[in-house]
Amino acid sequence: MAATLDSLPSGAVTPANERLSRPLDSIDIPHKQVKKICCIGAGYVGGPTCAVIAYRSPHVQVTIVDLNQARIDAWNSDELPIYEPGLDEVVKSVRGKNLFFSTDVDTAIKEADLIFVSVNTPTKKTGVGAGYAADLGYVESATRHIAKVSTSDKIVVEKSTVPCRTASSMRKILDANGKPGARFDILSNPEFLAEGTAIRDLLNPDRVLIGSLDTEHGRAAAASLADVYANWVPRKQVITMNLWSSELSKLAANALLAQRISSINALSAICEATGADVDEVSYAVGLDSRIGPKFLKASVGFGGSCFQKDILNLVYLSESLHLPDVAAYWRQVVDMNEHQKRRFTQRIIKSLFNTLTGKKLAVLGFAFKKDTGDTRESAAITLIKYFRQEQAKISIYDPKVEESQIWYDLAEPGVVDDVTALKKQVTIASSAYEAADDADAVIVVTEWDEFRDTQLDYEKIYQKVKKPAFIFDGRLILNQKKLEKIGFKVEVIGRSRADESFE
Ligand code: NAI
After folding, report:
1. Residue 503 above 90 pLDDT?
2. Residue nearest to ligand 1 atom 6, measured at CA
3. What angle do CA 336, 120, 367 make, to 5 degrees?
């Protein structure tokens, strides 16, 4: 029978598919109510995630543990170790009531019904898979710790982003080292929060994903964790599926998000060469409901601790599965990201009359994105490395990143080989105005709101900089026409150079 127009699905949204999520309401097998949670790893994920669980579940006691005493001390102080809008309020309202931070890992594990493993899983630096594979040493050591001290049944939850089938390795470790009588059920519950909006994302997640074995115990464990989230997340947004799909979904989500950024950045190069404007192109394509507007902002490239690491992990997985073409496909997303940073640097060199030697560059922003103090894999680190190779002098200002963190990142092996030279070339300013003082160019690297022309006094900046007054917008946050009126020569990613005409 021919479908009528009214019966056709509207838009490209896939209708909810019952088969794809085991409906939680049908989990009528008995399951345990979680009363005590332990979270191993008090980092960017463990801290905010479990603070929100405590905030929304007053009857659950949550203890976040870490081996790093300084980090735990900071969580117990007025100056939390990470900056995240809304985090202070959440932590301070429940800390000491049902939320605790401690280095006593043994006690927290022993007392918990459910344990989140939220430790770091960085890219391996040496050995087999170096540069691609995830270093699972921290996950393994946390798992061994759980096996060693547990004297009762535990639900062990992978919160860290891990390669597909990590749960199977954890099971082997727990089975081989656990005490008789203590049973372990492993779940995958990847975290989809984005730094900078973590609290908002945690309070209103698009979905919560829980992967379990499709066994009676596996389903019961999934139901116990689902009950915790049900304290604030609508049941239909808590999705349950098989363990391996859940593990792979996290890598897949990050790979697809990063791919969108690399795709628009690849198009930005074409825009610069043709007179098209990448902001207009992304607006036009984003209106197509099949594409959507998010993650289509051209920039100096993605950063952060996850995108690159997780794609490289996917590349490694593909190669291990003897799928070299698949590996090459995903690797290109990372290659394009590096290309974008080199391209931006070349544009700056070309605009500044083909040399940066001895010139002062004011770098606005060092965090990998706004509203976080996190600098891991920040584009700023690579750009500053390139500027230094061109013998430029660099003055850096960031509203949230500590000075000591900037020095730490710039002195990392692979970024610098001569720390004395680094100190001669780089200074850290306490305001954008100070950074811009006598600069040959101002470069916007992070999209902090305070760098927008509605907040920063660009007339004042113009008075301070050398002429011609160059400004490079690596985040497409400035009003080009307004700044040109002041007298700036404005160079924007994804728009042609000021001295080129495509009329
Ligand atoms: P992080 O490095 O900020 O925190 C990890 C913490 O675990 C550190 O404080 C470390 O001292 C602690 N730790 C390591 N081994 C331990 C052990 N055996 N016992 C106790 N503490 C231990 O890392 P972050 O950013 O929180 O990431 C954690 C995991 O979450 C990673 O797998 C990451 O890929 C994933 N993830 C990160 C997101 C992010 O935006 N940062 C978002 C989603 C997932």
Report:
1. no
2. 41
3. 50
- Residues 300/379, Cβ–Cβ less than 8 Å: yes
- Asked if residue 25 has pLDDT above 80, the reply is no
Which residue's CA is the closest to the ligand 1 atom numbered 3?
Answer: 43
Pocket of ligand 1 (CB under 6 A): 40-46, 65-68, 71, 105, 118-121, 138, 141-142, 145, 160-161, 191, 193, 195, 305-306
Tens digits of residue pLDDT in 27-86: 567 899 999 999 999 999 999 999 999 999 999 999 999 999 999 999 999 999 999 999
Specify the ligand 1 atom closest to the Cα of 46.
26
Q: Does residue 240 contact residue 222 with C-beta atoms inside 8 Å?
A: yes
Both tokens assigned to 470: 């160059």
The catalytic site residues sit at: 191, 250, 306
Which pLDDT does position 313 carry in this prediction?
95
Instruction: Let me know: does 410 contact 404? Beta carbons within 8 Å.
Output: no
Query: Which residue from 363, 430, 423, 358 is spatially nearest to 395, judged by alpha carbons?
Result: 363
Query: Is the distance from CB of 158 to CB of 249 less than 8 angstroms?
Result: no
Query: Which of 481, 474, 475, 476 has the alpha carbon at shortest distance from 498?
Result: 481
Phi, psi at residue 472, to the nearest 5°? Answer: -115, 120
Can you tell me the distance from the alpha carbon of 262 to that of 264, in angstroms, rounded to the nearest whole number? 6
Rounded to the nearest angstrom, the distance between the alpha carbon of 117 and the centre of ligand 1 is 8
Smallest Cα–Cα separation from 156: which of 51, 136, 249, 169?
169
For residue 365, is it left (φ>0), alpha (ψ between -120 and 50) or beta?
left
What torsion do the CA atoms of 278, 280, 281, 282 make, to the nearest 10 degrees?
90
**Pairing outcome for strands 426-428 and 441-444:** unpaired
What is the tens place of the pLDDT at every residue in 388-427?
999 999 999 999 999 999 999 999 877 777 788 899 999 9
